[in-house]
Amino acid sequence: MLQSALSRYSGIVAANTCWELIRQGAQILDVRSPAEFAQGHLSQAVNVPLNQLDTWIKQQQNKQQPFVLYCAAGIRAQMGCDILRANGFGCAVNGGSLQDLLYSQPAA
């Protein structure tokens, strides 16, 4: 079900939808630089800078794993989604910016 939900999205997805996908098991990828990541990030996020995504992809075995990507504004996240899809990962959505996701993060 999660995969079919993800397949409907292209472009930046509303933050509340991203949080629902994360709640359902999507992995969060922060595609900003390590320096940006060190300045603040979502606690659940894995830092995979956009310029290292091609290398990281080769280490992934499950191409069905759903992903929510974010960056500073959503541009690099969209590029990351495009790279993932071009490499057979059909379950990637653009979560937009870190700030948008932080602002809409559900209460614990």
Q: Care to describe what's here?
A:
The protein has helices spanning 2-6, 15-23, 34-38, 53-58, 75-86, 98-103, and strands at residues 27-30, 46-47, 67-71, 92-97. With 108 residues, it is an alpha/beta fold. It has one domain: Oxidized Rhodanese, domain 1. The protein is globular. Residues 22-106 form the Rhodanese domain. InterPro entries: Rhodanese-like_dom, Rhodanese-like_dom_sf, Thiosulfate_ST/Rhodanese-like. One of its GO terms (molecular function) is transferase activity. It holds the Pfam family Rhodanese.
CATH superfamily: Rhodanese-like domain
The end-to-end distance, rounded to whole angstroms, is 24 Å
What is the second-level CATH architecture? 3-Layer(aba) Sandwich
The topology string of helices and strands comes to: HHEHEHEHEH
Characteristics of this structure?
108 residues; alpha/beta; Oxidized Rhodanese, domain 1; 6 helices; 4 strands; globular
TL;DR of this structure?
Helices cover about 40% and strands about 15% of the residues. The chain contains 6 helices and 4 strands. Keywords: Transferase.
List strands and helices in order, with pairings:
Layout: H1 2-6, H2 15-23, E1 27-30, H3 34-38, E2 46-47, H4 53-58, E3 67-71, H5 75-86, E4 92-97, H6 98-103
Parallel strand pairs: 1-2, 1-3, 3-4
